[in-house]
Amino acid sequence: MSGGVPPSPMSDAQAAAAIFAVDPVGTGVLLRAGPSPARDQWLAALCALCPAHTPLRRVPPGVPDDRLLGGLDLAATLAAGRPIAERGILAASDGGALLLAMADRLRPGTAARITAAMDAGEVAMQRDGIDLRLPSRFGVIALDEGLAEDERAPPALAERLAIHLTLEAGTLPSPDPGTAIDEARAHLASVTADSQVLHALCSAAAALGIASLRAPLQAVRVARAAAALAGRDRVDEADVALAARLVLAPRATRLPLPDEPPAHAPTAPDPSPLPDEQRAREDAVPLKDVVLAAARAAIPSALLAALRLGEAPRSGPRADGKAGAQRRTVRRGRPAGTRLGTLRSDQRLALVETLRAAAPWQSLRRLEAANAARRVIVRRDDIRLVRLKAPSLTTTIFAVDASGSAALARLAEAKGAVELLLADCYVRRDTVALIAFRGRTAELVLPPTGSLARARRCLAGLPGGGGTPLAAALDMIEGVADSVARKGRTPITVLLTDGRANVARDGTPGRPQAEQDALDAARRLRASGRACLLIDTAPRPQPTAERIAREMGARYLALPYADATALSHAVRADIEASR
């Protein structure tokens, strides 16, 4: 297939669909987009590119384990009166693909079972008392609708999907009619990538702060599939750049550093003429620089803003977020599995799971029952209840340094920034609390409230001057946060201070003891594991403030010479990035 006719240029969205159709098992797509015509068009394009016999099974986020891995065939078991097993979705999808709807709501246990089958290429199940291992080599398309950063697809699943694609408004990813998927699939095994390609992708991944070794390996698979689509036998520069945009750029955790100039002065060029081929090789841009430039240009705008603030995106489950921590409830919320229990008026019956628990025992129960005409006999031990999970509300605790050093420097800007942030909390229906510390003690100026006007009045009347009792402020933050948590809310602390503690916990002046007391209070606050953000409001970043933030497990943000608007924008972006 070498020397084939190159296809017409494709957008990254079109290329992602075509690459997945060529190598679904080796790539996988994490599609970040809400329900929209653009997403429907992209999925339609993908289905049009895949072979007609390819099974594509849609998996809801609340799929039970026995349906996923294989278990009891409920209808056949009820009809036959004995347990009858059925193949699960994973085994039935061998050679095809899974479409994970609402992957951001996928339970961690379900994600773990899917990723285990992806790694092993098989799924274990039992049939007639015999352990079976069925092949389950499939591709995965995960639809991540968590665009607000408070919900994301499970990290273990996202790491195993090569292509991370975000559909922007107006995207029209129609399939390219010149793309020959069947020919590219047949040609994929013969496409090679030399050591220069591997070195360039690994160097770019390291420069972007990507710690996982899967990313450069997945980028190689994507580049080989792109080369197969173009009819080439070897991966070239365009294929590597495409892989960098689709695989490496969305995973970046830092901005690449600019190359340092050479330490020695450049030597004078040789006046002797050079052959054209040698001159072209010397003038060519190194492949690793091409890959890095392509990845940097493709970093999503929201991720780029967070990286410019110096904050790497966090992965893994977190308790804090815009909607607060998730808590179990019995009346409302999202389904979170089932449990044993007694059916009452305030409980919801999981009918299918109850029938599954009762089905294997029907033949024995009909023999024991006096009324054999009953079709299904359900006992108390079979009852399964729906377990629901609902978000709790959030309380943002603002602790403002109103001491003399802060008043001379940034108190006016800090008060203006907090007032702007209060409006954001009001829009999200969060409650807010305000702590001010100055002189010898800290004071709860405003208990947790949802009244924006009251919070503004308390903030406007906040005086400045006196010492910095930072230890007393941290102790009060801990007490208020505990009180908020006991009421079922999620506390988030925003501490604005210059970190220059000079009043000890007992109210006596003295910087050494005050700093030691502040560090001790910070360590106790860290043990609670709650979300905290420390804003260094000094004109110049203070090492003591950064150390206190580190000891209390808080995110540190230094904003020298910023006005109230810039400060509030940076704090808002940092809080959203932490969710």
List the helices and strands and how they pair.
Elements: H1 12-22, E1 29-32, H2 37-49, E2 56-59, H3 65-69, E3 70-72, H4 74-80, E4 85-87, H5 89-92, E5 97-100, H6 108-120, E6 122-127, E7 130-135, E8 139-144, H7 155-160, E9 163-166, H8 181-187, H9 195-207, H10 214-230, H11 237-248, H12 276-283, H13 287-297, H14 301-308, E10 326-329, E11 334-340, H15 351-358, H16 362-368, E12 384-391, E13 394-401, H17 404-409, H18 411-427, E14 431-438, E15 441-449, H19 452-460, H20 470-486, E16 490-497, H21 511-527, E17 531-536, H22 543-551, E18 555-558, H23 564-577
Parallel strand pairs: 1-8, 1-9, 2-5, 5-8, 13-14, 13-16, 16-17, 17-18
Antiparallel strand pairs: 3-4, 6-7, 10-12, 11-12, 14-15
Quick one: overall form? flat
Strand content: 15-25%
The largest sheet has its strands arranged as: 15-14-13-16-17-18
Measured on Cα atoms, how large is the radius of gyration?
Answer: 30 Å
